[in-house]
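Table S5 (text form). Sequence records supplied for joint modeling of the two-component complex.
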Amino acid sequence: MKIFQRLVPWILLAIALFILPAALDDFRLNLFGRYFSLAITALAIDLIWGYTGLLSLGQGIFFALGGYAVAMYLMLNTKSLAGGNGIPKFFENYGVDQLPFFWQPFWSPVFTLIALWVIPAVVAGLVGWLIFRNRIKGVYFSIITQAALMVFFHFFNGQQKLFDGTNGLKTSTSELFGQLVGSPDMQVWFYRLTVVLLPLAFLVCRYFTSGRFGDALIAIRDDESRLRFAGFNPVPFKTIVFLVAGALCGISGALYTVQSGIVSPQYMSISFSIEMVIWVAVGGRGTLVGPIIGATVVNYLRSLVSEALPEAWLFVQGALFIFVVVLMPDGIYGWITKGGFRTFLAAFGIAKPAKTYPKLDKEAVPVD
Amino acid sequence: MELFFSQILDGLSIGSVLLLAATGLAIVFGLMGVINLAHGEFMMLGAYVTYVVQSAFKPMGGVIFELYFPISLVLAFIVTGLIGVLLERTLIRQLYGRPLETLLATWGVSLILIQLIRSVSTAMMLGIIVGVVVGFIISKLLAAKFSEKPFFTYLNGLGWAIAIGIGLIAVNLFDQVRPLAKPWFGPRNIDVTAPKWLQGSWGMIGGIELPGLRIFIILLSALLLLATYWFLNKSVWGLRIRSVTQNRQMSNCLGIPTDRVDSITFGIGSGLAGVAGCAITLLGSVGPNLGAAYIVSCFMVIVLGGVGNLLGTVLASLLLGIIQSVIGSGTLLTIFPDMPLAAKGVIEFFATTSMSLVLVFIFIIVFLQFRPNGMFPQKGRSVDA
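The corresponding structure-token record, covering 753 residues in total, follows.
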């Protein structure tokens, strides 16, 4: 049994790497690639919400920053997208003839590979530090991250001269290694990259949630004041974990962008960032397997429902939010591992009911 | 200078719309600690109530039609208030003391409300009624037979799932009848025409024209604010609400019905949102997505003002309104034409509606660095106050 449990992750990985590409057509495979890249975001949110108790409604910022970084590189390095003076064509529509200065470093692939997770990490660290050092927490943290999200959204949406505004940057028509990014061959490679990076993100999260650092995170979640009274300063812990989550979201956003073919300010909409939270809630927060399950299941459900009945998706999504929060706070994975499934079986007389405190008290021999 | 004053007036009216919207939220958030992300959707419902009332009054014409607006104000308050009470009784009540979960659940409610307004039709309404009735019958039947069994909860859930299925089938059946399938509102924006006595100007003061609509909204928000203040500080229920806010357990011990206090608070908060929605119809066309435009600003007002403090809410909303209008319109450039080039560039950069919002939010985040609990922080002795 032990050996079997150890093998499960490898089996899943092998299925994702070898069996899914063979079994699914290009379109479906691409969808799964997107789900797995979103799962990295879900892992990041689990790190800050499930383990540290910080409900951020602004992870879309970091997701989109990663996406924009990679899209800017692709736009610059594609000859067919360049206009008259060697810069991307869309600039001409707004009468810009010089590349804005912050686009310059994105000529370099090495810089881009570093920037797509360092820029979100730095922004996250800065925003997090500013918020945490004032002991802003709980719902106030959520509201302020949401406001920060709106700042970035309006900035990217309104600045057509810098980012093509609401149109976003289209990557599917750009080229990488002389091949179209939107072509099926490239998409399979992006899928494989995602499947390799997802377990790595998992390991990063496991590293941060185990050991003394992880204990501190859980202490912050359960009783931050007590941790402070015990002589710890929670600010660095929170800032670091928020920074790591930002970096993971950036990577996830970059992977998602190349697979969906576009990055636009819509990635920074309020609704998308809250949706990310619900993936974690559905899968099971406070566990590292849960978010991966949640992101995949919810997004798969989304594709199914939107294909069949586009209007129904908002109903289903809303109901999912309410259902998970009220009836299944531990999520799918938590329900199975934390005794919900056992209680369910016991209710139908299939398994023995677990002994709980009142029961133990009743059975105890009265002492007189 | 006249331009400046008219900008201030404009800012005041933007601020008073914010104030209208934020007062309800401030009551619910400040007094109950509940984050209601569906607040914006309650505003949207209020706007649609106004639209319905207007459509009902249109055939009558003449003087009676001119009176539709006050009636729709009252109706919007009552309808959204009742929906708010229903929501509190069924959902919010389960989640007290878990603010983050309430936030997610109310977001779910807001998604459902948006889609409901978009696609509601007679067929759909009938289907929902069928589903709910069948669900109640099934759960009553099951309760009579199995209520003692350990698997009753799961069985009940299954029963409701079946009821939802029957409801969906009913919707599809009713949809076959053409006249029933027509959506009531549809996804497009709706227009409410302001009554004649609100259009046009209400005279001039010192060379500045007073646009009727804007003045009316400012007066309305002032009136509602006074009413809220009176209710909270002078009425019996207001006293109970304040005592529950201060110490829920102690109030409970002293015989204050805390659950009814919660319902009433939430109902009033939602009702105020409805009135705000009603007022917003005067400013332009409204659609199912109305709520999203206001909700973040409303929360910002509350955070900036300090939670549970009406004065803070007033000051914060007016301040935000004025900043937004003065910066967003670029008035500063016309008033001070000789400012240095760098400052000019900065102001030009922010001189659009959306960029002025960016500036406002940055301003709030910076402000919270110095006053983390807003302008008027709540005083308390516990660590987390």
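Note: The interface with chain B takes residues 55, 130, 134-136, 138-140, 142-144, 146-148, 150-151, 154-155, 157-158, 225, 270-271, 274, 277-278, 281, 311, 314-315, 317-322, 324-326, 329, 344, 346-348, 353 of chain A (CB under 8 Å).
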